[in-house]
Amino acid sequence: MRPSTLSRSSIAYKWILTSVLMIPFTSEVWAEKIRTAIPQANLNYLSIYVAAAKGFFRDEGLENETVVISGPLATAALLSGDVDFSGGGGSGMRAALKGAPIKGIFFQTEKVTFYLIADPSIKTAADLKGKKVAVGSSGDTQDRMITMFAERGGVSSRDITRIAMGSDTNSRILALKSGAAHASAVDPGGLVFAQKEGLVSLGFLGDLFPMPFQGFVTLDRKIRENPGQIKRWLKAAIRGLMFVRDQPEEAVTLGIKNLQLGKATRPMIVEGTKNYARALPQGVPGLPTAEGIRNFLEYDIKVPLQIKEDVPPERLLHLQLVEEVKKELEVVQRRPSR
Fold it and tell me: The pTM is what?
């Protein structure tokens, strides 16, 4: 009987040892696979790549794949189930207003990330009078913010000529250098390129007023059926944002291979990342203020869609989960380091 007992004990011991050794591999195998769509692989979305490189998604039991898809197409991919989260927040929430089962769950920044660049002959907002301004399209967010900047300098909206040029930064910079336009708005990375070409910055448009920017959306069904997964994704994404803000040089090292920034050098990308960080608040980002939400609904929803009636925030936004995640991360931040 004893040999049989020893044999069974030996087998049991080996089974337990094998199970313990397999735990790390099992957790990898069972990580939930998700896909996150971003509209562009630029500095505005460096945080998503950083979150993956630092293992923040893995910490939450997620295996994230980031795909680059423009806003309207990302909304279609979200509706078809091809992606789980979309960074084309404006497109997604405008679709929600028309009946799509989508909600905004998170905003990366509390301000727009645009900088106003100009020909060196233009020194102040007042100098924009009678000048040509390159915008994506007439009436878009950049147009409205440039107009507001000019109006604060005493220049009427009708005293500015708008030239629709799409979103390509290089085209805008070339237009300014050739004299086809005199001013334009660019993203943080574009500012670095513009200054390298001898153009000047008139100011950070994000300082005009709070307006949450770079929203992420997901399906109503996921909010109902899998809020836990959303919270884990949010925690990883927000940790990525905080890392970009607090350690820009290391963030660039981690994410540079994924970015599509043309001939930008590493120092230029680091500088652009610091420009981007101006749109992030201190503490835990992700949850807009009440004023910011009102501005977002006004300038990114009602004006583009020419809607006069008020839009209830809950029709487009579900921010309870990011509020919970923010509180949880704030508790972690307050814990004394050992």
Answer: 0.85
